[in-house]
Specification:
Keywords: Signal. This protein is of the alpha/beta class. It has 15 helices and 5 strands. Helix 2 (about 40-55) packs across helix 4 and helix 5 (about 90-105) crosses helix 8 (about 140-180). It is globular, with a radius of gyration of 22 Å.
Length: about 350
């Protein structure tokens, strides 16, 4: 899987109590977080919400049904109702354009193209950027659909809805930034100390609020990690998300070593492990990436255990829960064993069991 592209679908955020304690020291006053929470922006929300209209009304593969939204929250269900009503009020031509746009490319590709625009980018700027992008390489018909649909969608449906929601999200962004600052949250320092590995870049993170309560998306440009978050995200959720995000470049520092490449071949002979891959995740990852994803997911769970004292009982992949428990059982200490050797020892133990 392209390391810059990973879609976090139905991202289940952790519900953990986050202690808020204001520090009035000089350090607190000069502290600047490497995590910045930003308000709703048109460059993301216009495309992402149009895609959500497509997913809830046309795209049968995603099954974004009423119950998913209803179970999420009352606000999410109101949003679902708006999505359904919006689609029902479109004429046949606009419905056809919507279908053509998102059958041709997914929303990640479109948003990745406009993500570096200014946060106050207009609809015209978004459309022009999409239609001129060499990577997207859109056909003339698709360019025409993008222009007429997004102008129509914004003017007739989205403009008033977006403005109505924006104040609420902007206020949430300000509150979250303040809480991160008050607590001097430094995820990078914690993850480097806990792993014994210095990240290869000084990463910065920008998190944009989005209207979609079920789907978060992530993008990476140089040393900046960009992602979208839902309305009800908490400070603890933000920390947990970054344990996962920063675990990937952490493992990338040794995942292409000769020992690892040889070990992937060995794991490929594990029938049960390979079966899980073929049945559930083959379409999302290469086998080598999937081996790594099991470790990344398990290690991010372990970081949450160290930071919050949180515990896990459910697995996301074949071996991520086992790896989390393995690190707890050995009392992983980077001063005694490297994370690279610990992961290899873990997979050896699974092969020998």
């Amino acid at each position: 899987m392209n390391s810059k592209k990973f879609l976090l679908i139905m991202f289940v955020l952790l519900v953990i109590i986050f202690a808020i304690g204001k520090d009035t020291s000089a350090n607190a006053q000069t502290y600047k977080s490497d995590i910045l929470i930003k308000e709703l922006t048109l460059k993301i929300s216009l495309i992402q919400t149009a895609s959500e209209v497509y997913d809830t009304n046309i795209n049968e593969t995603k099954n974004f049904n009423k119950n998913l939204y209803k179970d999420k929250s009352n606000q999410a269900y109101k949003h679902y109702t708006w999505l359904k009503n919006t689609y029902s009020n479109m004429d046949k031509e606009m419905k056809s354009s919507l279908e053509n746009i998102f059958k041709s490319k997914d929303s990640w590709e479109y948003i990745n193209t406009v993500i570096n625009l200014n946060d106050d980018a207009s609809v015209d700027e978004i459309i022009n950027t999409l239609n001129r992008d060499k990577y997207l390489n859109l056909s003339d018909d698709l360019k025409n659909d993008i222009e007429k649909f997004f102008i129509y969608f914004y003017d007739e449906h989205f403009k008033s809805y977006y403005k109505k929601q924006k104040y609420k999200y902007d206020r949430k962004a300000n509150n979250l930034n303040q809480k991160l600052s008050d607590n001097q949250v430094d995820v990078i320092k914690f993850i480097e100390t806990s792993s014994g590995i210095k990240l290869p870049k000084h990463y910065k993170s920008i998190m944009y609020y989005n209207l979609n309560p079920l789907v978060s998306q992530a993008f990476e440009h140089d040393n900046v990690m960009i992602s979208t978050i839902g309305l009800n995200v908490t400070p603890a959720d933000i920390v947990s998300i970054h344990f996962y995000k920063y675990a990937r470049p952490l493992f990338d520092t040794f995942s292409t070593s000769k020992e690892y490449l040889n070990f992937y071949s060995t794991l490929n002979q594990d029938k049960n492990f390979k079966s899980d891959y073929n049945n559930f995740d083959k379409g999302s990852y290469s086998f080598n990436d999937w081996c790594l994803e099991n470790l990344i997911s398990g290690y991010s769970k372990y970081l949450e255990y160290l930071y919050f004292g949180s515990t896990y009982e459910n697995a996301s992949y074949a071996y991520d829960l086992d790896f989390y428990n393995y690190l707890k059982d050995i009392g992983f200490n980077p001063n005694k064993i490297s994370l690279k050797d610990a992961t290899i020892n873990f997979y050896k133990s699974k092969l020998n069991s």
